[in-house]
Amino acid sequence: MSKLVILCVDDEEIVLRSLNTQLKEAFGNTYEYEMAQDADEALELIAELNKEGIKIIIIVSDWLMPGMKGDEFFIKVHQQFPETIKILLTGQADESAIQRAKEEANIHCCLYKPWSENDLLEIIKSSLDKL
Predict the structure, then answer these.
(1) For residue 128, what pLDDT is reported?
(2) Distance CA 126, CA 101 (A)
(3) 80 close to 105: Cβ distance less than 8 angstroms
(4) Whole-angstrom Cα distance, residue 26 to residue 73?
(5) Rounded-to-integer distance, Cα 72 and Cα 57, Å
(6) CA 112 to CA 36: how far, in whole Å?
(7) Which CATH fold would you assign to the domain 4-128?
(8) What contacts 110, CB < 8 A, 6 or more positions away?
(9) Residue 39 CB burial class (10 angstroms; 0-12, 13-18, ≥19)
(10) d(Cα 40, Cα 126) in Å, to the nearest integer?
């Protein structure tokens, strides 16, 4: 059986590196970790992994990115993969965008930048319990 994937999407490389490090330290080799720098790259990666039969179980995505915003991205993902757990990570999302993501993409939660590593890991652990 292939490993399960946690996907992180953010246009800032330093954020992706930080998320990758925190997740690997917390969960080790239990999961595979994929990174994308915008929503379009993430959608391509999701399609590619899905074609290979690899399941993405959690997506952590920024809201403010070039091109597609995080709420729009999560709505697209939710239409194809409603079971994927979606966590919005933002420093700039407005309340209407967060509400839209909750209503139309069923996001698990919204975590604000700068995030606490403990909060991030607790949110991910609680979402894993729902699988």
Answers:
(1) 87
(2) 19
(3) no
(4) 26
(5) 19
(6) 19
(7) Rossmann fold (3.40.50)
(8) 87, 88, 89, 90, 93, 98, 101
(9) buried
(10) 28
What secondary structure letter does DSSP report for 64?
S
State the amino acid at position 117 in one-letter form. E
What is the predicted pLDDT for the residue at 14? 96
Ranges of each domain in the chain: 4-128
Against a cut of 0.85, is the pTM above it? yes
Residues present in the chain in total: 131
Provide block-wise average pLDDT over 10 residues at a time, the chain (131 residues): 89 97 96 97 97 96 94 97 95 87 95 94 90 77
Q: Is the CB of residue 86 less than 8 Å from the CB of residue 74?
A: yes
CA–CA distance, 77 with 40 (Å, rounded to integer) = 11
Structure tokens at 58: 């959690």
Whole-angstrom Cα distance, residue 66 to residue 103?
23
Specify the pLDDT at position 1: 53
